[in-house]
């Protein structure tokens, strides 16, 4: 069973894009995770059947 496409518009005040694969809740979660991983972190989006299903978070620390 396929999920319906999202009709979400995001803008930075100058440019506007239509999100086709993520909704606002997912976008906010990803933004929060990006803030948490810091300078040397990494986020990996795992896509299953055309939709983002998981996010892997990798955090590295400088020694």
Plain-language structure description:
- The protein is of the alpha+beta class.
- 22% of the residues lie in helices and 37% in strands.
- Strands 1-2 form a two-stranded antiparallel sheet.
- Strand 1 and strand 2 form a beta hairpin.
- The longest helix has 14 residues.
- The protein is flat, with a radius of gyration of 14 Å.
In short:
The protein has one helix spanning 24-37; strands at 8-11, 16-19, 42-48, 51-58.
Ordered list of secondary-structure elements with their pairings:
Blueprint: E1 8-11, E2 16-19, H1 24-37, E3 42-48, E4 51-58
Structural class comes to alpha+beta
Beta-strand portion reads 35-45%
Low-pLDDT runs: none
- Helix and strand succession? EEHEE
How many DSSP helices?
A: 1
Strand numbers in spatial order across the main sheet: 1-2
Largest sheet: 2 strands, antiparallel
Q: What is the helix fraction of residues, given as a range? A: 10-25%
Number of strands: 4
Shape: flat
Distance between the termini: 47 Å
The gyration radius over C-alpha positions equals 14 Å
**Average pLDDT over all residues:** 84
Name its key features.
alpha+beta, two-stranded antiparallel ribbon, 63 residues
């Amino acid at each position: 069973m396929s999920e319906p496409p999202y009709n979400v518009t995001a803008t930075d005040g100058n440019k506007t894009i239509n999100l086709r694969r993520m909704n606002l809740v997912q976008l906010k979660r990803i933004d929060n995770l990006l803030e948490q991983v810091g300078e040397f972190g990494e986020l990996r989006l795992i896509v299953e059947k055309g939709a983002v299903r998981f996010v892997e978070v990798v955090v590295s620390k400088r020694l």
